[in-house]
Amino acid sequence: MLTGPRRRLAVWGDPIAHSRSPRLHAAAYGTLGLDWDYGRRRVGEANFASAVEELDAAWRGLSLTMPLKHAAARAAVSLDDDARLTGAVNTFLLAEGGPRGFNTDVGGLARALDEIGVREPGAIRVLGAGATATSAVVAAARTGAGLIEVRARRPEAAAPLGALADPLGVVVRVVALDDPELSPVDATIAALPGGTDLGGVADDLASVSGPLVDVVYGGWPTPLAQAWARAGGEAHDGLAMLLHQALLQVRVFVGEDPEIALERETEVLAAMRTALVGD
Question: Which of 17, 40, 74, 214 could cross-link to 190 by cystine, CB 3.0-4.6 Å?
Fold first, then answer.
């Protein structure tokens, strides 16, 4: 178990008041018997670097949400494979030698897919073109998908996602969101802004797109989730992704490696899951 002076952590972003990370991390460290303080702070991209410079030796790390993920990737002295592939960091470990960057969104989403039974899929559809969509493409590959179809309002904006095909060893096909050619897939990951309403396109997608994981967890059910319900399909919110990416963050902050399980991890995950759905 890690001991020493680094006992402060926080989630940073803008906006940040809605974040459930403090309750998740508090549950984890309480279960582990660590007297660590985890808070939140509103920080924008323009003042990210200066805010990091203000941190003293009591700080162990940061959880980062938008719009800080790319800035953190640039500031880190090293990146794990998922952060390097996506160019996004959501976990900033303040280690000796400089901050190390990790992207646990990828592993969190892969674990969320596994939780709903999506294992070794042939094809997965990703809706969106931003940072979360990039993590979704990598997560889809991690689950074993050989074909990943990316649908975006502006396919040119999703070109960087198509470039992930070679390093991931998969086929990535980028098309317009409303492209009429629809092939069946084993699951769909929606990485669109909350409340996005695709109208009739959503109904078309729902009919051939397997279970839906919508990374949104506020304002549920989303218009997409409602379309899946009309089609008789499964729709899942982003809470499982949030839970599992937070667990992987705890692994980083405690043991410096997202691949190494915590002591009493089953208890930690159960406590975090309870905290997630609490008032």
Answer: 214
